[in-house]
From TrEMBL:
It comes from Isoalcanivorax beigongshangi. The gene is proC. This is Pyrroline-5-carboxylate reductase. Residues 163-266 form the Pyrroline-5-carboxylate reductase dimerisation domain. Pathway: Amino-acid biosynthesis; L-proline biosynthesis; L-proline from L-glutamate 5-semialdehyde: step 1/1. It is an enzyme of class 1 (oxidoreductase). The keyword Oxidoreductase applies. Residues 6-100 form the Pyrroline-5-carboxylate reductase catalytic N-terminal domain.
Length: 269
């Protein structure tokens, strides 16, 4: 990988997942810069990862060729407007990972820089991330490649031609890990209700989730076929699946993802 420097503005959950995954993948910490309001958090990150840190966003922006904007959508405008003078006249690739913040917003706040809008997810920390990407026309082929090198170092990347697809990606894979964690929590609670000790219930649930995902990824069969292979006629799985279907799991999932997509769209306004 070419030795350009990468700065993260905002060192919260998603930025630290990305940085942890990038370093585990072999990207040198000396190339990574992180800023945040919280000096203690930064000190911990410097100690853990040996990255450069600063509580001054402008300091990070002045050092880096690629800037990953990783603050919450609600503060993105203020953060970008404050950085605009720092970036003026420089060739910096901006990658925003914020939900719902459009490239038009980012360019209005930062200036006419090449912008990639990305939607990663926290499994990036273990190189099992999934990221949707959208680029404005001014992003060069080399800069697209930089975005893929960074986000692709921690998982799969997918380019989209329409920016609106990023709202759907946010609903599916950006927020998606939380849906599976909720199901894990519910299954652990249910297993405990059924008399298992909590630690064993947790191990059984996590191994089952991991095994199901591995099987679904490696099998030539689609999830519906794999589900049928578990389901003996008149057996235990059928009894459980009947309850899920009767209580409207599919409609619930559909409504939940629509709510996430709508929220992503609303954040742009
Ligand atoms: N978490 C996730 O799974 C995903 C998140 N995202 C996106 O990533 C972005 C960050 O989310 P997430 O990591 O969860 O949020 P966090 O709140 O964990 O991280 C944001 C960090 O930015 C800091 N911050 C706030 N204001 C400033 C500022 N002016 N300058 C520098 N740093 C600042 C926050 O500090 P403080 O806490 O003190 O406010 C916090 O540490 C969001 O835009 C979100 O939409 C995208 C994909 C997945
Ligand atoms: O909840 C959120 O808004 C962010 C975006 C996707 C995951 N977390």
């Amino acid at each position: 990988m070419a030795q350009y420097s990468i700065g993260f503005i905002g060192a919260g959950n998603m930025a630290t997942s990305l940085v942890g995954g990038m370093i585990a993948k072999g990207i040198r910490p000396a190339r990574i810069w992180m800023s945040d309001l919280d000096g203690e958090r930064l000190a911990g990150l410097r100690q853990q990862h040996r990255v450069h840190v600063s509580t001054d966003n402008a300091d990070i922006a002045s050092q880096c060729d690629v800037l990953v904007m990783a603050v919450k959508p609600q503060v993105m405008e203020d953060v970008c407007r404050a950085l605009a003078p720092q970036l003026a006249g420089r060739e910096v690739l901006v990658i925003s990972i914020a939900a719902g913040v459009t490239v038009a917003n980012l360019q209005a706040w930062l200036g006419p820089h090449p912008v990639v809008r990305a939607m990663p997810n926290t499994p990036a920390l273990v190189q099992a991330g999934a990221t949707g990407l959208y680029a404005v026309d001014s992003v060069s082929a080399a800069q697209r490649e930089q975005a893929v090198q960074i986000l692709g170092s921690v998982g799969l990347t997918f380019w989209f031609e329409q920016e609106s697809a990023l709202d759907a990606v946010t609903a599916v894979s950006g927020s998606g890990p939380a849906y599976f964690f909720l199901l894990m929590e519910a299954m652990i609670d249910a297993g405990t209700e059924l008399g298992l000790d909590r630690a064993t219930a947790q191990q059984l649930v996590l191994q089952t989730a991991w095994g199901a995902a591995q099987l679904a990824i490696t099998s030539p069969n689609s999830p519906d076929v794999l589900r049928q292979q578990v389901t003996s006629p008149g057996g235990t799985t059928a009894a459980a699946l009947d309850v899920f279907e009767q209580r409207g799991l599919r409609d619930t999932v559909n409504a939940a993802l629509s709510a996430a997509r709508d929220r992503s769209e609303a954040l742009a306004k």
